[in-house]
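WP5 quarterly update. Target: Polypyrimidine tract-binding protein 2. Source organism: Mus caroli. Length: 536 aa.
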Amino acid sequence: MDGIVTEVAVGVKRGSDELLSGSVLSSPNSNMSGVVVTANGNDSKKFKGEDKMDGAPSRVLHIRKLPGEVTETEVIALGLPFGKVTNILMLKGKNQAFLELATEEAAITMVNYYSAVTPHLRNQPIYIQYSNHKELKTDNTLNQRAQVVLQAVTAVQTANTPLSGTTVSESAVTPAQSPVLRIIIDNMYYPVTLDVLHQIFSKFGAVLKIITFTKNNQFQALLQYGDPVNAQQAKLALDGQNIYNACCTLRIDFSKLVNLNVKYNNDKSRDYTRPDLPSGDGQPALDPAIAAAFAKETSLLGLPVAAVPGALSPLAIPNAAAAAAAAAAGRVGMPGVSAGGNTVLLVSNLNEEMVTPQSLFTLFGVYGDVQRVKILYNKKDSALIQMADGNQSQLAMNHLNGQKMYGKIIRVTLSKHQTVQLPREGLDDQGLTKDFGNSPLHRFKKPGSKNFQNIFPPSATLHLSNIPPSVAEEDLRTLFANTGGTVKAFKFFQDHKMALLQMATVEEAIQALIDLHNYNLGENHHLRVSFSKSTI
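Structure tokens (predicted):
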């Protein structure tokens, strides 16, 4: 890549219609007066306006304190586990960068994760926050090197056409005797890769081959053992279990196939008995010079460069994104293994007139088993909530940070406390601390419980279950309207034991869930309320 000028001097004058050239950040309230990025990467004017730590969410992220020699690929790799990276701008002289993700949701997940786990590049901590800018506009000809790297990374990411270049031999067999398992992953909140599957399934015997593909918008895999007995043991132990706590649920069946014919070793398919296989040419063709430049950059990282033709020979190395995703979800936690990570959340900007330990228990209990809640005595708009494990606290933070509860937007972060202390015996703390450790209302007590498959972000549509036969649609509409909101739609399931009910807003649905989950409908039926992914 020598000889390509990475960034050319740019200047943006406030109020000027004329853009001199180069990379410009677009923003509704652009305060980028005077960004100058010169050819050698030294900027000559102060780069202002990006130091707000808690700006409004944006899909553009501002990354600071980068090591001087860091490459575009290393910065892009920070974002890959969370979604597609759509643009990057490096400010070399400032040791800063802007990274644009495809969606705001991906950026929010990334910021939430890295606020809990400080990211490091080249053993140096770096800092990530939302940018004031809503999108990143770069002149592709001038930001050429960055575009080349992005193009190569995208080629690796999008090379997942179903079974690209992979054929499956058609020798069918009765299902129970097959050494081949068909695996479907539900609730895929974190990326699951071929390497993660290999790590989990190897516990039950030697894994010979894996093919991964996407079908009907679901991540699926075919995995072959040397012996059908191993396949049987893995199916018995893992079917219905979660790779990460409370998400990524495994659905496992025997395949009709007895043998997989893997043609290429890359991040989509692998034959562990044949390390000599090529990486395949099913991927979009890249200019060899670009591929070589990308290989040079990625060799520092351990990205799955095998999928880039002519880049490197196939490497059986874990994808950096997979490693980060595994970290993002705590650990590759087999069920029953308590996950690492902090279990205590700090919730702030609460409505202190309305909030109670019980209401926090009910809302946060949608995402995990709440053990203890303490509303702070000297700061009653803040509370500490202790979850059963680190994955549950991560899940609750990802889904509830920025939601409205009792009319106020709540902030959820990981606390530095390891546990929530109960008050000393005999000390009255006005009911601000409550121990829910033995609560019968925990949703996730049973390993492999169906509740793990039904964890969704707060939504206006609620899923109701455990409805007694005597309760009619009108009764439920009235009940939910009494929580202070408007019921927009209602639909019973066929058996009338379950229903979908839609409130006017997400905030109203949150309120209704807090008020009515576990509500006694008579006949010894307590109503169960969850958020739904469906709409009516």
